[in-house]
Structures are given as C-alpha cells and as structure tokens.
Write a structure and sequence with these properties.
Elements (H helix, E strand, L loop, with lengths): L2 E2 L2 E2 L10 E2 L5 E2 L6 E7 L5 E5 L14 E5 L3 E6 L13 E2 L1 E2 L5 E7 L2
Parallel strand pairs: 1-4, 2-11
Antiparallel strand pairs: 3-11, 4-9, 5-8, 5-11, 6-7, 6-10
Length: 110
C-alpha cells in the first residue's frame, strides 16, 4: 500500500516511473491534466475500479468507474478531481482485479 503523487511532464519530456500495482494503492492530487497509464503485462484482461465519493448534480451517488485493460496492452486514463475522496485527503483509491505483472505511471502536465 502506497500513496503516489503525479510526476510532472517537462517541456523536454519525462520518463515516468513505472510502479508495480499493489493492494491499497492511492493517487494524490487528482485534477486537470492528471493521467494514469496502466500497463497490463499479464495474459488476461484486468480491471481497475475507482469509487469516488460524493453526489452528482442530480443528488445521486457518483458512479463507480470500472476500467478494463486488455492483456498485453496499456491504457491511458484521466484522473479528474471528482475521483478524490475528501475524507481521505482527496486521494483516489485504486482497486485492482489482479496485480501480478501490472504496472502504472501517474503523471500531470507541466
């Protein structure tokens, strides 16, 4: 379990740090320009689930976001501020269906 801050992308480019997926991963500082790139190195699809707190403008719970990452592919996923949980310092909890051979990079624009 670890908290990860977004790495800034400089005007000259950046090689983001690849992190191994683990139970309890959280992202700090979600918002505009934040992206997570999930790399699935396994032989089967996996899912990443994000459960934001709060309510929509229609006064219903914000929906859980379930993203499928096909085996042997990578997917870029925006991390908007609405995913942050205010009672957890605005962090975004990541729930992985599997973690073996799954890595991710968390970035923000400069």
């Amino acid at each position: 379990m670890a908290d990860y801050a977004p790495e800034g992308i400089s005007i000259d480019g950046t090689t983001p740090t690849a992190r191994s997926a683990a139970s309890g991963d959280k992202l700090t500082d979600p918002g505009d320009g934040r992206m997570i790139r999930v790399i699935n190195g396994s032989g089967a699809p996996i899912t990443l689930t994000i459960t934001p707190s709060g309510l929509t403008l229609y006064n219903v719970a914000n929906p859980t976001k379930v993203i499928t990452i096909t085996n042997a592919t990578a997917k870029m996923i925006p991390v908007p501020a609405v995913y942050g949980v205010p009672t957890d310092s605005g962090k975004v909890a990541l729930t992985w269906s599997a973690t073996a051979t799954i890595t991710f990079e968390y970035t923000r624009g400069h």
